[in-house]
Amino acid sequence: MTPSNEDELTQAALQRLAECGDPRFAQVMSSLITHLHAFIREVDLKPDEWMAGIEFLTAVGQACSDKRQEFILLSDTLGASMMVVMLDQLRASRGSTGSLSVTEATEATVQGPYYWQGAPEVPLGADIAEGVKGEPTFYSGRVTDTHGRPVAGALLDVWSGDGEGVYDMQVEGSDMAARARLRTDEEGRYWFWSIRPSFYPVPVDGPVGQMLAAMGRHPNRPGHIHMKVSAPQHAPVTTHLFVAGSPYLDSDAVFGVRPSLIVDYERHPAGKAPDGREMNRPYWSAHYDFRLEPQAA
Ligand code: BEZ
Ligand code: FE
Questions:
Q1: Are strands 262-263 and 237-243 parallel, antiparallel or unpaired?
Q2: pLDDT at position 93, please?
Q3: How far from chain centre, in Å, is Cα 107?
Q4: Separation of alpha carbons 269 and 280, rounded Å
Q5: Residue 33's closest CA among 16, 50, 57?
């Protein structure tokens, strides 16, 4: 088919998928072509604007290295990563509960670029942020399944920036800091010390930073601590706890905030902490119970 107008051009591009041997790939590409053509027509894209877009995507690719993934940052800041996270968790929940629009499990959010595999496994009660800038915080809670049954031996893989919003990985040559793995006790309980995380900006020294500025957007994320919570025969959850009252909770640069993940941090004077630790300066506490969806073995 030789297209003679815009509608026929879209049809011609779709017909080129006729010989595609992978039905899922054909579905994805067909939808992509349909939406891309519709987008170009809707905004009446000019050749110089099209070229500016090509140059932008080229710069995004060139900014990627083994230490930086600018395409994921682009996806994060356009809300695409969060859309994939939300749909993925709903798909898993639908499988076991039949619910269409809610999950009973702890809600998931974006992983972000600062996960570092192989954090040290530490005992319950450990301070995972010794020597890290920031106000001490006692974290505690339980891991249960979605029926409320305690999950013993669940793994919490925890990481955050420091009290000024800087991650260990952002400091050239730094060792791991403010990250660890812990396992829940027989009753599904966990507790550990870290710091109260601060808000911080996503990396803005590349093309995505220029895009945010051109869009009139700030680059900040509200204060949060990351967790991957997992246990055998349960769906793992990659999530955060957000600090209630933090700036940017209403305008997270990567759309990762979910109301169910906002936690009150309670301030305490110096003295005996809930785990018996004698604190010689004021500290905070944050309590959160995680729920994991049981999965067939
Ligand atoms: C983060 O939370 O660490 C993060 C997430 C997405 C983009 C940049 C940073
Ligand atoms: Fe983060």
A1: parallel
A2: 76
A3: 11
A4: 9
A5: 16
Task: Check if the beta carbon of residue 110 is closer than 8 Å to that of residue 256.
Answer: yes
Q: Atom 5 of ligand 1 has which residue's CA nearest to it?
A: 112
Residue type, 145: D
Nearest to 254 by CA among 225, 219, 279, 278: 219
Q: Structural domain boundaries of the chain?
A: 1-45, 62-294
**Which residue has its alpha carbon closest to ligand 1 atom 7?**
112
Distance, CA 113 to ligand 1 centroid (Å)? Answer: 6
Of ligand 1's listed atoms, the one at least distance from the Cα of 114 is 3
Percentages of the chain per state (helix, strand, coil), in multiples of 5: 30, 25, 45
The pLDDT score that the predictor gives to residue 66 is 84
Q: Which residues line ligand 1 (CB under 6 A)?
A: 73, 76, 110, 112-114, 202, 221, 254
Q: How far apart are CA 213 and CA 202, in angstroms?
A: 12
**Block means of pLDDT (10 residues each) for the chain, length 297 residues?**
94 97 98 98 98 98 93 98 94 63 87 94 97 96 97 98 92 92 98 97 97 98 98 96 98 98 98 96 98 88
Q: Which pLDDT score is estimated for 101?
A: 59
Q: What is the pLDDT of residue 96?
A: 52
Q: Which CATH superfamily is domain 62-294 in?
A: Aromatic compound dioxygenase (2.60.130.10)
Ligand nearest to the CA of 209: 1
Q: Kind and range of the H or E element at 84?
A: helix 80-97
The dihedral over CA atoms of 205, 210, 211, 212, expressed in degrees to the nearest 10, equals 70
